[in-house]
Amino acid sequence: MLKITPFNTHILTNPVYQLDARRLKYGATPITLKRWSFRIFLRVCIIITIVMILFGYLNWSSQQAYYNTLTAQSITTYTIPIESFIASWILGWAQLIFVISIGSAFILDLTILSQSLNAINTDVAQGRWDLLRLTTLSPSTVIAAKHTLTRLRSWQSLMTVLSLRLIAVGLSLLLILFASIAYGPSFFEEVIIPLYRSFIERPIAMSFLAAMTVCFVFVYLFEVIWRHRALSALLLWLSARHSTANAILIGLAAIAGVWISQAAIMGLIFTVAGQVSNLVSGLFSQNWRLQSDLLNIGFACLCFLIGTTIFLYYRLLYHHSLRRAQDRAFNDMEKL
Predict the structure, then answer these.
(1) 237 and 325 in contact (C-beta within 8 Å)?
(2) What are the residue ranges spanned by the domains of the chain?
(3) How far apart are CA 218 and CA 133, in angstroms?
(4) What are phi and psi of 29, to 5 degrees?
(5) pLDDT < 50 stretches in the chain
(6) Which of 121, 173, 193, 314 could bridge 226 with an S-S bond, Cβ 3.0-4.6 Å?
(7) Of 42, 3, 1, 4, whose CA–CA distance to 163 is shortest?
(8) Helix spans in 73-154 (H)
């Protein structure tokens, strides 16, 4: 569940992987992959930082000009509230990067599609697949190598999306840290102390609320990794079933199907949750505190259920696609 890299204990000694890994420019071994991943993360951080500072400076300049105009038109001196400006600046970029990181998952899907299309059918067209079938290598060994190579070829896109999500989480934490420093006692009086009192008065409900936050961040970060592994397997199966021309259209349809099926599952979960929430609100309308506690617990369980559902969905898609790719590539290849 927490595994990030596509390597396992046997893949590096896999002869199919060793042969095709020579064409990889980066990340052919676990050490080089970690270094490459760090460089991608560092590059994204530098780009985001430069863009944030540039637009922040332009926004500051425009607001400064506006306040200077107000000062010139009156006897009162107007200045930019620096704490509010920085807090809104961090919050705005955290929200923007969060939205971009969600939308960029579609670009990751297209990258996986482009790297998976020719994983098997090109070998079939050039006659190399028949040679693989004549070796003593097990079908699972060959498919595992092809799947690992497919993931590595789209690794840069994966790390870019993951870096954006890490930055969004980091900016959220930075906002909390900045608020605690900039606003000092008022932040503690208005935020920290009420939270502490809530934990003392309603420990179970607040614990579930904290668990919900941790669960959301965990799923937000790891969902793209689960998606990358499962979608690579699905498109690898399509590569074994169809020629390149057909695989493009069917691959786009498969990507759309994954998005639609996810939306349908989430819609069903939220519909049931909404009905349960209405039921709880109606039954305990006279006891506000109990109603609030039950809803907090329910939201935490809902977040956990969504995370578990997403993980199991991708896991099922991954295993089913690899089995179907293996069956198609080694048992039904004569039908291509």
Answers:
(1) yes
(2) 51-80, 81-335
(3) 41
(4) -125, 160
(5) 1, 335-336
(6) 314
(7) 42
(8) 82-116, 121-125, 128-134, 139-153
